[in-house]
Amino acid sequence: MIVTDVSLNNFLSYESEKVTFAKGLNIVYGANAAGKTNLIDSIYLCSLGRSSRHSRDKELINWKAPAAGFGVELKVEKRFSTHTVAITADEQGKKRVTVDRLPVQRIGELMGVVNVVFFSPQVIGLVREAPADRRRFMDMGLCQQSKTYFYTLQRYNAILQQRNKLLKTYKGRASLDSMLEVVDSEMIRTAAFIIKERAKFIAKLKPYAVNEHYKLTDGAEEFSVSYETEAVDPDNPEEGLRRLAASSRSDDLRLEYTTVGPHRDDLKLSVSGVDLRKFGSQGQQRSAVLSLKLAEIASFRARTGETPVLLLDDVLSELDEKRRNALFNAIDGIQTIITCTEPAEFDGATYFEVKNGHCTRK
Fold first, then answer.
1. Has this prediction a pTM greater than 0.85?
2. RecF/RecN/SMC N-terminal domain location, by residue (predicted)?
3. pLDDT for the residue numbered 73
4. CA nearest neighbour of 260 among 243, 282, 276, 236
5. Coil, strand, or helix at residue 84?
6. Which residues have a Cβ under 8 Å from the Cβ of 241 and sit 6 or more positions away?
């Protein structure tokens, strides 16, 4: 998979710009706040339908022309097809998405058109941060591979929000139990699907991650990654979820929110039996995240036959020489777009300088 062109119109720091990328390694350099990350974000937007940094689409409009809205158009070449993704928003942030000039009515239809693996300083904190960050890692990978997963996750989150609202609004009322019975039936069904898919995703990812980590550490550490869920059997979670829903009902009523389900699950990462989330050194944590990201590429390629585009946003300074070398050895043959402040020398790389709101190929 190759992103060939990205055209920007009033998108963040860019008023009007078109960038044509090379197939291999692309180095985007410039001063801090020049707009390098904004360029990366436009590709991320066309992949997942949302920004990697901004929660509202209105925030993506160039501040110099707020009434004009924004536009991003991306062209991608895949093994057997080419596609054009266009995303626009008006001054209120109302978004419109098209794929090959045809309107996309549901954002899930965008999933899988442009696939990316995203790596940033914030992602490096994946191991030490809250479980929500590790769940997001799983969900982002799965949503790009499966529209069904994307829609089911949306459905689960909507049901969860509805259930929590019922717990708060109808607390103490006799009708609450019967309403929860109806909601819980659908919630368990969607939750079971999410848990099964996450468990399969991590099972397929694990051997690649273990192999990448072995290379990173010269075999000095034994890396392990596993999916943690309250459902007893992730391969057949329905029975466990029903039991947990019943046993947690009193706690849910008291706390006024849902205490069990895939929104509470986690990803366990350990090295030689030591839980990295609690006790890992900074170097070990970075090696673990790098291993996961490289494994994500390999796993995605094995599952879909396509190689995702790798977006590395200002991470080189976060990695020591050994980890940088491991990274560059692993990305051979993968279109990679790297942002950095200084244009380090890399064999065969294509360079772009971001300055004064423009990205110029050198």
1. yes
2. 3-344
3. 97
4. 243
5. strand
6. 188, 191, 192, 195, 231, 260, 261
